[in-house]
Structures are given as structure tokens and as C-alpha cells.
Write a structure and sequence with these properties.
Strands 1-2 form a two-stranded antiparallel ribbon. It has one domain: Up-down Bundle (A middle domain of Talin 1), CATH 1.20.1420.30. The chain is globular, with a radius of gyration of 21 Å. The protein is built from 14 helices and 2 strands. With 338 residues, the protein is mainly alpha-helical.
Length: 338
């Protein structure tokens, strides 16, 4: 029965995130927020909302080990399994922006996590993941958001200027300016009441779903004598990554390769810098040997895929198969060693 309840919890959690994204996107578009920012902030945040909700619930319920396991399990599933499976069916081309900015930052985020966990060895500081450590991650996340939105706005302005030049060249600029020159009034709250209600309902479902996931996952851990960290690393980590998996499958079917790898890289960066950073800022996390090992595994997996993407600018079927195999071996080893 507890397994069924856990599945229901994941459904509530993921559907809540989906409803939140849909409502937020409609409201943002209605208020003329650029589409690129909607994609980066709202959709990017929305696909990582399950991990965030589960981590906040874990912190409130004193399950810090599940909070770390959730992020580690989710990131490894994303970077190895999802990228690998998609690449097997449709090889991915890495664009310049991902290779020059997003991937390097994802690698930095993945590497800094084990460093913060081991800063007592290197610098003689507290061996826990402290509030100060969380603040460092949040500051890096703020830089990531600032640079991403800034670059996107510049790209959008460039495209608009280019289109204006084309319109002037073919004599349609004045006509377009006349047709679209009148400013439309911003929609009222009354007209957007349905979408605002969707945002509220989505957030409530996400929060409740996160609480339920922690409750039933903890019950499973107790029943089978598994550590909460292991449950977070496996069941919860994979479950909260389902939105990313669904988005990537849909993007692959439409041939939108940039969305696939961009979604994974953005989600993994968000998970470490914001979700784990916020968790640590709220409540310090006591570090044990398994957490350090898992944090190093995330770092190595991210460096592996990131180096390949930066150097080769593509992830083919062979590499995709290797990534999936590495993930299977990794999961087998941690479950067997539990």
C-alpha cells in the first residue's frame, strides 16, 4: 500500500509542477514578459520544482540525508541516464552557448559541492554543509540567473533589430509599425483569475506532494532497514527527475536538441546552487562519508559529460550507450553496497 501512496505522491508532485508552469507561462506572456525569460526562469524552475519541494519537506522533517540524496540521485540520473538514453535514439549537437557558459558553470557547481563538504580538510573549517556554504551556492546561482537572462535579452534585441532591417529593406516596416504600434492594455487580474488560480493550486499540490513523498519514502526506508540517504539517492532522486525526462522525450520527438541538453544542464545547476543552497541556508547539513562519495560521483559524472560536450560539441549513440551503462553500474554498486 505504501508503494501505491508513494506513486500517488509523485503524481501529485509532478502534476502540480505542470499546472504551475502552465499558469505562470500564461500570466507572464499576458504581461509581455519576454518568451526567453519565461523559458529560463519559469519552465527551468518548474521542472526542478519537485526536487525543491522534496528538499524543503526533508529539511522541515529533519531528513537532511534524504535532501542530499535527492539532489545527488536526481543529478546523476539526469546527466547519465536521461542524456544517454536520448543520445542513443537521437545524437545531440551542443551549441556554442552551452559549451562556453552553461556546461562550465554546471561543472563548477558539481565540483564545488564536494569541496564544501571537505573544507574542514582543506581549510580547517566546519565539516558540515553550513549556512555560509549555502550562501556561497546561492550567490553563484544569482550570477547564473543574471548572466543567462542578460545574454538572452541581448540575443532577443539582436533578432528584433535584424527583423527590423529586413522589414525596412522590403518596405513593410511602416505598415507593420502602423498595424502593431498601438499599445495594448495589460490584462486585468480578473481576466487572468483562472491562470492565477492554476498557479496557486499548482503550488499547493507541489508542497503537499513533497510532504507525502518524504513521508512514504521514509516509511519504506524504515520497513526495509534502508538509510534515508539511499532512498533519496534512488527512489526519490529518480522520481523527482521525471519532469526533466518527459520534457526531454517531447523535445527529442520534435527535434529540439537544444532544449534537451539545456534542460538537463539547467536543472542540474539549479538543483545544486539553488535547491541545495537554500536547504543549507535554512538548516546546516551534517556530512558523512557516503554524502562525500556521492557528491564526488556527481562531480565526476558532470565533468565526464561536460568535457565531452565542450570538446566534441556533440554526444553520439556510442557515448550515450556508455553513459547509460555507467549509470546502471553505479546504481547496482550503491544498492549492493547498502
Amino acid at each position: 500500500m505504501v508503494y501505491l501512496l508513494l506513486i500517488v505522491s509523485f503524481v501529485i508532485l509532478i502534476k502540480g509542477a505542470d499546472v504551475f508552469i502552465e499558469g505562470s507561462s500564461v500570466v507572464a506572456k499576458a504581461f509581455k514578459i519576454p518568451e526567453l525569460i519565461i523559458g529560463i526562469v519559469i519552465v527551468g524552475f518548474g521542472t526542478s520544482l519537485p526536487e525543491f519541494a522534496v528538499n524543503m519537506a526533508a529539511i522541515v522533517n529533519n531528513s537532511n540525508e534524504m535532501a542530499v540524496g535527492n539532489i545527488v540521485g536526481s543529478n546523476i540520473f539526469n546527466i547519465l541516464f536521461i542524456v544517454g538514453v536520448i543520445a542513443i535514439f537521437k545524437p545531440m549537437i551542443i551549441d556554442e552557448k552551452l559549451a562556453s557558459f552553461d556546461f562550465p558553470l554546471a561543472i563548477i557547481a558539481a565540483i564545488i559541492l564536494p569541496f564544501l563538504a571537505l573544507d574542514d580538510t582543506f581549510l580547517g573549517l566546519d565539516k558540515n554543509l553550513t549556512r555560509f556554504d549555502g550562501a556561497i551556492l546561492l550567490l553563484i546561482f544569482a550570477y547564473f540567473v543574471k548572466e543567462t537572462i542578460g545574454k538572452s535579452l541581448i540575443d532577443q534585441k539582436y533578432k528584433e533589430k535584424k527583423m527590423m532591417i529586413y522589414e525596412i529593406a522590403d518596405g513593410t516596416f511602416k505598415l507593420n509599425k502602423f498595424l502593431h504600434g498601438k499599445k495594448k492594455k495589460k490584462p486585468s487580474i480578473k481576466h487572468l483569475s483562472k491562470d492565477i488560480a492554476m498557479i496557486v493550486i499548482g503550488l499547493i499540490a507541489v508542497v503537499k506532494g513533497g510532504d507525502m513523498v518524504i513521508e512514504y519514502a521514509s516509511e519504506i526506508a524504515t520497513t526495509f532497514g534502508m538509510s534515508k540517504h539511499l532512498v533519496g539517492l534512488t527512489i526519490v532522486g529518480v522520481g523527482t527527475s521525471l519532469p526533466e525526462f518527459v520534457v526531454c522525450i517531447m523535445a527529442a520527438r520534435r527535434g529540439q536538441q537544444g532544449i534537451i541538453i539545456g534542460n538537463i544542464v539547467g536543472s542540474n545547476t539549479f538543483n545544486i546552487l539553488f535547491t541545495l543552497g537554500a536547504s543549507m541556508a535554512i538548516k546546516p547539513i551534517i556530512v558523512d562519508h557516503s554524502m562525500i562519495t556521492d557528491a564526488m560521483n556527481v562531480g565526476m559524472a558532470t565533468v565526464l559529460v561536460g568535457a565531452l560536450a565542450i570538446l566534441n560539441k556533440k554526444i553520439g549513440r556510442l557515448m550515450g550507450s556508455i553513459l547509460v551503462l555507467v549509470y546502471i553500474v553505479y546504481m547496482y554498486s550503491i544498492i549492493k553496497g547498502a
